[in-house]
Every structure is written in C-alpha cells, then in structure tokens.
C-alpha cells in the first residue's frame, strides 16, 4: 500500500469477542470511510467467529504515549506490589476478573 | 416426474452458486486492495458452501453413486443449469460488483421464498444461506453506489458494466420447465413473485448510485437449459482440470 494521498486512510479495529467482555484491539486496515472500515473489519477480523461487535476508529485519532517517556511513566509502578489486588480470595463463581 | 424436476431444480440452484463462486474466486490475490480481496474471497467461499449443500442433496436424490464432487467436476457444459449472468467474465471491479449485486438481490428474494418450500432440505439450505446473501447484497449495493456516485471514471465504468450486464438479468425470472414444475409442486419458488421486489430494489440502489435503468432490452437466455455462452467451457476447463487429469485425486 503506497503512502501517497491517493490511498485510503488507516483505521484501527476493536473487536468484542463475546457479550460482557471488552472490545480489544484486533489490528488495522485501510478503508475509504467508516462504513467500509466496519465491513472490512468484519471480513478481515471476524472470519473465524472472533467477534460479536466491532468498533473502528481512524488511526489518526489515536493519541499515544511517547516510547522515550517509558521509563518515567511506567517504571515507578515496578516496586508497588501493594497496588495489586492479590490479597483477596475470589469466589469461584466470579468470572472475567 | 416430480423427482426429476426436484433434482434439476436443485442442480440449477447449485450450479448458480458454484459458477458465481468460481468467478468471484478468480479475484483471489488480484483484488484492488487487500481488504476487498479478502471480502470478495469470503463471498466466493459462501457461494461454494451453498453449492456444496445443494449438490450433496442432489446427489442423495439421484441415488446413483453421484457425489457433490462428481456433480461439480464431471459434468459437461450442457449439463450445467446456471443462468448466463454468473458465467460472464469478471471484467473490471465495476462489472464484478454490479453482477454480484444483480445476482445477490435475486438470491436474497429467492431464498426468502424458498424458506417456505415444502421440501424441508431446500428450505433449510435457503434459511442458512439467506444470512450470507443478506451481507452479499449489502456489500455489493454499497459498491454500486460508491462507484456510480463516485468519480467521472468510476461512473463511466459502472455505465459500461450496466451496458454489458443488463441483458443477462432477464433470464433469472424466465421460468424454465423444471422451475414451473417446482413452483407448481410447492418445493420451488414462483419467479413472478420475485420480479417486483427485485425491480424495486435494483431501481432504488441504481437511483442512489445516480445510474440509469435500462428498460426493455432484448434479454439473453438459455443457461437454465444448458445452452451457455462460450465462457462456461473455459471456466469448466480450468475448474475441472485436476479431476479430469487425475481422476479421484485427493489432497
């Protein structure tokens, strides 16, 4: 796919695999508009029963952290084990935690 | 008598789906963009799946050792009962999506009615296939609108596609002998009932696509009775080559 302004914009695809679960990033694709993006997503990412719902968003609308900031953003959480909710016993009946 | 009509009717439904599927599968690896290549290949696979269901049923009805494979790969052009529309060459993307739009609209209304068939197997296949066809119709209508109401070039290509394809649409509604018997016996669909719905859907999409409707044109026909264009022979030559050259080959 060429990067000249003739090519279709890039979209990010989020798929919900079943009711009650979150939409998860599945990948990206090219499409002329949102409607085509949803159909392309259906054809490319749900061929093997991966989903029950699709979100698409144009990739240019995604704002991301800068990898150069990784150390200051994420490393400080390293030694804070007390933030993990691992000190509770979960009943077996609770699913999807 | 009824059984022969039922077999021929089932083969007609199967051949329509198989040849349409084969034509669209020719785009695999050649689509204009990766996403649309996959979309059309998915649709082709849907059609071939429908064809398999109908062939399996036809083979059961024939009860003479025929299988879905022998029906697809060992019959000659004159035995094929598909409409001429589905065997037309792919042409460009415009012609491919327009042909699929005409055919999917037809299948959509046909399968809706066929769900009420008094033959439970045909009714079940129709019900299962209808979900697929609903998407084919949506996908192909959007492309017709996108190209018809698009750039000068895309519109011109759609106009050419209309010119090349329109005269093959009438045959779908011209009932041949086994279709008349099928409708009469209640296992098949009365094509007259589909005609208005088809016309209305086509008109509304073409209108949105800012494309003209071709009225009274001479309509080609013959496919349902085995009288085909020269294109079907080439399709079969490619599709059947392996089974003809290496009978019984499996992989």
The biggest beta sheet of chain B reads: none
Query: Which H/E pattern describes the elements of chain B?
Result: HHHHHHHHHH
Name the structural class of chain B: mainly alpha
- Mean of residue pLDDT of chain A? 88
Output the number of helix runs of chain B: 10
Strand order of the largest sheet of chain A: 2-1-3
Class derived from helix and strand content of chain A:
alpha+beta
Q: What would the principal axes of the Cα set say about the shape of chain B?
A: globular
Structure notes:
The complex is a heterodimer of chains A (97) and B (251). Chain A has 97 residues and is α+β, with helices and mostly antiparallel strands. Chain A has helices at 34-45, 70-74; strands at 10-16, 23-30, 53-58. Chain A has a three-stranded antiparallel β-sheet, with helices on one face. In chain A, a hairpin with a 6-residue loop joins β1 (10-16) and β2 (23-30). Chain A is flat and about 50 Å long. With 251 residues, chain B is mainly alpha-helical. Chain B contains ten helices and no strands. Chain B has helices spanning 2-25, 34-62, 68-73, 84-87, 93-114, 120-148, 152-165, 177-185, 191-208, 230-245. The longest helix of chain B has 29 residues, at 34-62. The radius of gyration of chain B is 18 Å and the shape is globular. The N and C termini of chain B lie far apart (38 Å).
């Amino acid at each position: 796919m060429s990067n000249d302004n003739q090519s279709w914009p890039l979209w990010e695809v989020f798929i919900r695999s079943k009711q009650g679960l979150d939409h998860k990033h599945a990948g990206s694709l090219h499409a002329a508009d949102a409607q085509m993006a949803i159909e392309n997503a259906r054809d490319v990412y749900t061929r093997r029963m991966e989903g029950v719902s699709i979100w698409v968003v144009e990739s240019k609308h995604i704002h991301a952290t800068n990898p150069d900031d990784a150390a200051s953003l994420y490393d400080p959480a390293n030694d804070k084990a007390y933030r993990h909710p691992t000190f509770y016993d979960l009943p077996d009946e609770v699913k999807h935690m | 008598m009824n059984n022969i009509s039922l077999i021929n009717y089932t083969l007609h439904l199967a051949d329509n789906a198989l040849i349409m599927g084969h034509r669209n599968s020719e785009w695999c690896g050649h689509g204009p963009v990766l996403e649309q290549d996959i979309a059309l290949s998915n649709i082709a696979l849907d059609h071939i799946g429908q064809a398999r269901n109908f062939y399996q049923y036809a083979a059961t009805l024939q009860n003479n050792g025929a299988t879905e494979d022998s029906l697809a790969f060992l019959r000659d052009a004159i035995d094929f009962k598909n409409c001429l529309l589905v065997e037309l060459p792919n042409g460009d993307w415009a012609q491919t999506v327009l042909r699929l739009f005409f055919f999917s609209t037809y299948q959509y209304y046909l399968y809706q009615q066929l769900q009420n068939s008094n033959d439970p197997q045909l009714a079940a296949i129709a019900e299962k296939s209808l979900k697929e066809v609903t998407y084919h119709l949506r996908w192909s209508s959007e492309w017709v609108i996108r190209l018809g109401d698009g750039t000068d070039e895309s519109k011109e290509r759609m106009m050419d596609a209309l010119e090349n394809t329109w005269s093959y649409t009438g045959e779908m509604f011209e009932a041949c002998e086994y279709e008349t018997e099928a409708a009469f016996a209640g296992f098949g669909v009365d094509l007259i009932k589909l005609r208005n719905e088809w016309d209305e859907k086509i008109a509304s999409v073409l209108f949105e696509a800012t494309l003209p409707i071709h009225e009274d044109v001479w309509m080609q026909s013959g496919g349902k009775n085995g009288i085909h264009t020269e294109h079907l022979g080439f399709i079969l030559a490619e599709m059947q080559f392996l089974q003809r050259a290496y009978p019984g080959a499996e992989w």
